[in-house]
Write a structure and sequence with these properties.
The protein is an all-alpha fold and 120 residues long. Helices cover 80% and strands 0% of the residues. The protein has one domain. The chain is built from four helices and no strands.
């Protein structure tokens, strides 16, 4: 498995997340796009984990996988905080803190993914 599918899926999830952030700042919300962002994020996380385990023919993942492992951890924290932020509608302050955490950690994971891909 090459890194291209992982990069495409997570780039799409990141771009859609940035667009959703712009909509959030405008006070709009589109449930279908939120669901698509969720699906792309989890699909990207799953394919990244599969890539770190090696290719289907048994060859190990290319390059140093330390950035890849940290990126997986950051994406997992980002997914969890994004999911909890969607549930925390009672407290706008808590929801905004969780959303900020989701954005920050997700972008840090994406930056590490790009660093890992550029090193392979």
């Amino acid at each position: 498995m090459t890194v291209a599918p992982v990069l495409v899926i997570l780039s799409a999830a990141t771009a859609l997340g940035l667009y959703l952030g712009l909509l959030y700042l405008r006070g709009e919300r589109k449930q279908g796009l939120v669901a698509l962002h969720l699906l792309l994020g989890f699909a990207g996380l799953e394919t990244l984990v599969m890539l770190l385990h090696g290719t289907p023919d048994g060859t190990p993942a290319a390059g140093s996988i330390s950035f890849g492992k940290v990126a997986v951890g950051l994406f997992a924290v980002s997914a969890f905080s994004g999911f909890i932020a969607a549930l925390a509608r009672r407290s706008p302050v808590a929801a905004n803190v969780l959303l900020g955490t989701h954005i920050t950690v997700g972008l840090a994971g994406f930056a590490l993914l790009l660093a890992w891909v550029s090193g392979t």
